[in-house]
Amino acid sequence: MKWKTLQHNGILFPPDFESKGIKIKIKGENVALNLLQEEMIYQWSKKKDAPKPGATEKYVEDPIFQKNFVSDFAKTFNGKFKNLQYSDVDFSQGYKLADKEKEEKELMTKEEKKSLAIKRKEIREEMKAKYGKGVIDGKEVEIGNYMAEPPGIFMGRGEHPMRGRYKPRVTSKDVTLNLGKEANIPEGEWGKIVHDKDSMWIASWMDILTQKRKYVWLADTAGIKQERDQAKYDKAKNL
Predict the structure, then answer these.
(1) Which domains does the chain have, with CATH numbers?
(2) pTM
(3) Name one GO cellular component term (predicted).
């Protein structure tokens, strides 16, 4: 069961990171950070109090978590800091910022929290109206999770060997879109445009850490998807 026409607006990307003025020292040396490096330090700092499930230590106290993060962080300096160790990096400014943001959040009044929640809801609804729907064979359909995963630190489960690795930001250049041949291509520098009429996904990209493809699918409520699932069920039933 193939679709004939497919139109959508691509996927939503998390907001770009804005500099927060974080400065660090590496081996006692003041180091100027580019935007990626500062974002990595910010993400690490926000995990400073995160407890590790089933353990007495925090994530940032886990040697493997530390080693994996620092290894990825060191790669951003193009060989300047070889054999960088966790103890070589002074995270204190990042930690102070994380504490300050946490305190400011806790001091918000009920009215401020309510106002913020309303604003976030309005933004979610606006984004859903743009990215959460598509048109397939002339019928409007809902799209599943239409946002690319945000960058951040891979937490993993249990003793996952990649815990602490940094998940880089997904950009439009990383994404393949599945569209109808006559469809308008959404604004952006997309990695690739395909016309796979057999597939129910609208976008995909490679997960750098796992080396597995991630997909954005049509929602289960989409008529053509339900019809295809029913056809598969009927075929299996008749075997």
Answers:
(1) 6-15+112-238 (2.170.11.10), 24-110 (1.10.10.41)
(2) 0.85
(3) chromosome
